[in-house]
Amino acid sequence: MQLLNDHVVLITGSGSGLGLGIARYFRDEGATLALFEYDESKVSKLQDEFGDDVLVVHGDVRSIADLTRCRDEVVGRFGRLTAIVGAQGIYDGNVRLADIPVERLDTLLDEIFAVNVKGYALTARIFFDLLDAEEGAVVLTCSQAAFAADGGGVAYTASKGAIRALINQLSFEFAPRVRVNAVAPSGIANSQLRGPAALGLQDSLQSDIPADAFRQQFEWLAPLQHMPSPEEYGPLYAFLASRHNRVMTGQTVLADSGALNRALISTGELMATMPGA
């Protein structure tokens, strides 16, 4: 039996990277999909790849009007909604606070928090009644950055910490009928998170970091020594989104390949194996 048979799932930020990998995994697990995407060029690619069985909606998670229109289209097409998976996000370029021009800091924080945090809160509110009717689930995307420093700069890290707190509060408010959890990935192969316009990085992607060097460093640090693809995070999201999960809410599942379980006593031995050492 497929894990998501008879599940109608909305995935936001589904046009590339992690969101696209989740969409592909959910399709293979039997889910009926609605895909919400900001980038028009990605919308057409989603329609080409997934075909007419999938509802693809162009819109912005920061817009109540766009999300409400998406809700109307989901109801008109499927009549119900079992789960929402939030996968949209924007990176901050890992720029240190002291290196951010003061005149750009206000705009940067507004931009990052609007996409990464406000977008999730708006989506949860607008679709709540559909999820409540189905005893459904919300699964959002957090990050290792919510648990440890240097997963991004101040704006990104703070936004991911806010998502972790948002999960706690929503799970409390939405209980007992709607389960609310998050997955906190670490490294993602070919991540497509774009940078902020506030810093002139809107045309840059996380994947612009030299892939081989990033993979080497991540796999040296992480005990599992493997850089996950977006699809490999799919099973975690699928279980949390599914009706098979009857025991977890309010949880942020850290999926970091063991990276935070770092060596202490054996640091010297580990350093000797570092690439380029």
UniProtKB/TrEMBL annotation:
Coiled-coil intervals, chain numbering: none
Similarity-based family: Belongs to the short-chain dehydrogenases/reductases (SDR) family.
Name this polypeptide is given: SDR family oxidoreductase
Domain of life the protein comes from: Bacteria
Keyword annotations of the record: Oxidoreductase
Pfam families: adh_short_C2
Residues spanning the signal sequence: none
